[in-house]
Amino acid sequence: MNPGEQPLFSTKAHVFQIDPDTKKNWIPATKQATNISYYYDNSRNSYRIIGVDGQKAVVNSVITPNMTFTKTSQKFGQWLDPRANIVYGLGFPTEVDLTKFIEKFKEIKDLTRQNSSQLIQEINGGSDNQTGSPLINHKVHHSRNSSISSIQSSDSGSLRERRNSLTQGGQNATTTSNSQTEVQLKYENDRLKLALAQSSGNAKKWEVELQTLKNNNARLTAALQESTSNVDEWKKQLASYKEDCNRLKTKMLEMEESHQQKLQQEVKSLQQEVEQLQQIQQSKDKEIDELVLKFNNMSSTDDSNTALQSRIQTLEEENHDLSVKVEDLQRLLGESRVSQDRENSDLIKLQEQLGHKVTELYELHEQIVSTIKKESNS
């Protein structure tokens, strides 16, 4: 940092530099936020962005009229220094700090553009003040025109140094001989040619970087198309899953209705049969009671007694058979109820499987929605 430089604006930011090999990844130049300042150099009439981390200068960039500061996110911006061929990146604590830095950058860039215009006017106007023979004046005018065209295509920071040299050379031309002026102009012309060669080298590097960016853009486009095709395939798969889900729902409802109807019919028929058997058993019980009464009343005759006893025994056997049938029917009714419970559990399992399918469909739907959002954001 020169003693003649004056600070104009300061802020804090994290400093990054683009990887010179890959031209893609950012390499941190500082571990924490450091002071980033705009400085004005009185001796060279130039503006610089300077950032110091301890005793190390992490940013040293001369601002030229053709520089552009690009805001890439809410808190991050970058610019290219063509002299050093470095892409700097700054990460600010807030968006307000980034906005202030950009506004100051534009203001200083306008000042450098105005200084360049004044320099060209001084060079054009200085040719009228040259003295000497017409041949010498013609050479001076031709050399200055060449210098002007080279200055407009080269770096603005070097332009200010050349302007001071040309201005000093023009002043010396009024006090020294024309030969010294011509030597000075030739020396300056050689310096301008060297700067032009350096600028051409930088232009070739930019062409390579532009081609790299084009290739990256092509790869990203191909990846985006592939992602779009994958999304379409996921949409088709989601539609097929929805159809399967609807078909399973319909089938489950049909099975549930049919099983319910069948079970209700079986239970109803078994209940009717049990009622009939109970009625028969009641009638048989009445008949037994009547026969017992008759047996008590007709105990006078053995024959009738024997007949009644055999009749009673027969009725008791029939009553036992009816009891066995009632037990069998009750057992069948219990088995039908167990079967109904088993079928209900099967229906519950089908419902759980259907719920898992619906959950999978919902998760797949969420993945598709998130993928579409990422693609739309990118």
In brief:
The protein contains 5 helices and 8 strands, in the order ββββββββααααα.
Would you mind describing this structure in some detail?
The protein is α+β, with helices and mostly antiparallel strands and 378 residues long. It has helices at 95-126, 134-153, 156-175, 178-297, 302-377; strands at residues 5-18, 26-28, 34-41, 46-53, 56-62, 70-71, 76-81, 86-91. Strands 1, 2, 3, 4, 5, 6, 7 and 8 form an eight-stranded antiparallel beta sheet that branches. α1 runs parallel beside α3 (156-175) and α4 (178-297) packs antiparallel against α5. It is rod-shaped, with a radius of gyration of 52 Å. Residues 127-177 have low confidence and may be disordered.
